[in-house]
Structure formats: C-alpha cells, structure tokens
C-alpha cells in the first residue's frame, strides 16, 4: 500500500471522532495491565499498524462508539477506579492525542479524582508540536508511554505503512516531553526487535536521555486472529514466540 503522512491522517480522523470538546469512545472497562487500571477505549488512530489489536474502531471509526464529554469520561473512569479499588486510569484502544482540546480537558477533570493517568500514545502529534508536550507536562499526575512502532525508520514504515520520516516524530515526542518537564518512557514490541536493532534503538534513545534506554519497555505481541491476517497481508512473518488469543 502507498505510504501516508500520519499528521494529515490525524486531521481527517479528527473530523470523524472529535466534536468540539467531545470524543468518540466505544467502551469503558477495568483492565489487568499496570497491576489494574480503569480504561476508556477511544475510537480512531493516525497509524495503521499491522499488529494492532484494535480492529473495527480503528478501521471504521464512523460506525463505532458514541461521543462523550471530558467530564463524562472522567466520571466513568473515576467510578470504575473507585468500585475496583484502582489508583490508575488511562485512555487506550486507539490514539488519544487526536482531539487535543478533549484530552487536555479530560486531564483537568481527572485531577479532581486524585488518580494517576497513563497516556498511551504513538507520540506522533506530541513530537510534531512542543506546545502539546508542554500542555501535558503541566499535569503532575500524568505519565506518558510512547509506543514506538519499530526500531528505526525502515521498520516503522513496514509495520505501519506510514512515511519512514514520521518515526523521528516518535523520538521527538520523548524529547519534547522531557524538555517540558514531563514524565515518560518508551516501549517496543520485542518480537520485532532483534538484538542488533534493539541495541541501535537504545543508542538512539541514549542521545535523548540515558534513562529512556535503560527503562525501555519490551511489550509482547498478542496474535489475535485479525492480527495474524494483518501481518500476513503485509507480508510480515509471524514471530514464533508470540502469544495467541481469540479475542482482545
């Protein structure tokens, strides 16, 4: 498939999933990750990663979910956290930075609940705009997890289908967040990271900050049936060490 500019894709997707300060979500739930976390799954992404577990909400955002205000999102997450005895919340499922006004307003609303917020993002929009990183860094309860889509430009493009140059925006997102006083770390799917590529990535991260390399999170690929098909369609071999699953 032809490559694309994820910034331009963000603008197109925003018109579908954002309405003033409201954003589309398709479910709210308790999740096991991070030792237990209240989760809001949003609709719409600016990347087309071949190993993404989100299927219809990413591919057909017009058909999925409903709009929620920042206050409604905060109240739902706060309620799940209180009922389950959790201290952490997140927005996951797709790309939460699409719809800046909604995200920042949601962070404001969540401050009243005294919960830690984990921002899971590919970092593209944060890397493209230092002021976005600054807005996020103002919240002391926010930790940003930048999910790197590959170890370098070439692999990024193969896994996402996006322009290779956009990989640098992911690295720049980490730089922007740290320069703004934000709390962050990077992650990578270990099945796509050979020792050589991983070492190269760590050296690149060290040039931003030594801790980024030391604290690089290795996440595992989960082979849902639709993920297997996506990998096959993209001509990418399925790592034998991956975990299979029937549903996300």
TrEMBL record:
<dbReference type="GO" id="GO:0046872">
    <property type="term" value="F:metal ion binding"/>
</dbReference>
<keyword id="KW-0456">Lyase</keyword>
<dbReference type="InterPro" id="IPR058240">
    <property type="entry name" value="rSAM_sf"/>
</dbReference>
<keyword id="KW-0535">Nitrogen fixation</keyword>
<dbReference type="GO" id="GO:0016829">
    <property type="term" value="F:lyase activity"/>
</dbReference>
<dbReference type="GO" id="GO:0051539">
    <property type="term" value="F:4 iron, 4 sulfur cluster binding"/>
</dbReference>
<comment type="similarity">
    <text>Belongs to the radical SAM superfamily. NifB family.</text>
</comment>
<dbReference type="InterPro" id="IPR013785">
    <property type="entry name" value="Aldolase_TIM"/>
</dbReference>
<keyword id="KW-0004">4Fe-4S</keyword>
<protein>
    <recommendedName>
        <fullName>Radical SAM core domain-containing protein</fullName>
    </recommendedName>
</protein>
<keyword id="KW-0479">Metal-binding</keyword>
<comment type="pathway">
    <text>Cofactor biosynthesis; Fe-Mo cofactor biosynthesis.</text>
</comment>
<keyword id="KW-0408">Iron</keyword>
<dbReference type="Pfam" id="PF04055">
    <property type="entry name" value="Radical_SAM"/>
</dbReference>
<dbReference type="InterPro" id="IPR007197">
    <property type="entry name" value="rSAM"/>
</dbReference>
<keyword id="KW-0411">Iron-sulfur</keyword>
<keyword id="KW-0949">S-adenosyl-L-methionine</keyword>
<feature type="domain" description="Radical SAM core">
    <location>
        <begin position="29"/>
        <end position="248"/>
    </location>
</feature>
């Amino acid at each position: 498939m032809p490559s694309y500019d994820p910034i331009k894709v963000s603008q197109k997707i925003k018109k579908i999933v954002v309405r003033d300060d409201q954003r589309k979500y398709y479910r709210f739930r308790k999740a096991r990750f991070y030792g237990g976390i209240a989760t809001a799954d949003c609709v719409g992404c600016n990347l087309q990663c071949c190993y993404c577990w989100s299927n219809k909400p990413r591919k057909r955002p017009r058909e999925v979910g409903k709009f929620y205000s920042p206050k409604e999102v905060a109240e739902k997450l706060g309620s799940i956290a209180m009922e389950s005895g959790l201290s952490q919340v997140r927005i996951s499922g797709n790309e939460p930075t699409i719809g800046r006004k909604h995200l920042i307003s949601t962070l404001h609303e969540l401050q009243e609940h005294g919960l830690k917020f984990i921002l899971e993002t590919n970092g593209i929009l944060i890397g493209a705009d230092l002021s976005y990183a600054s807005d996020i860094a103002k919240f002391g309860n926010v930790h940003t997890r930048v999910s790197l889509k590959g170890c370098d430009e070439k692999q990024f493009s193969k896994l996402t289908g996006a322009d290779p140059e956009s990989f640098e925006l992911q690295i720049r997102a980490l730089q922007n967040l740290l320069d703004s006083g934000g709390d962050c770390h990077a992650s990578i799917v270990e099945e796509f990271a050979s020792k050589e590529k991983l070492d190269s990535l760590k050296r690149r991260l060290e040039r931003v900050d030594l801790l980024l390399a030391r604290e690089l999170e290795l996440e595992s690929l989960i082979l849902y049936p639709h993920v297997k098909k996506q990998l096959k369609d993209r001509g990418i071999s399925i790592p034998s060490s991956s975990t299979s699953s029937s549903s996300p």
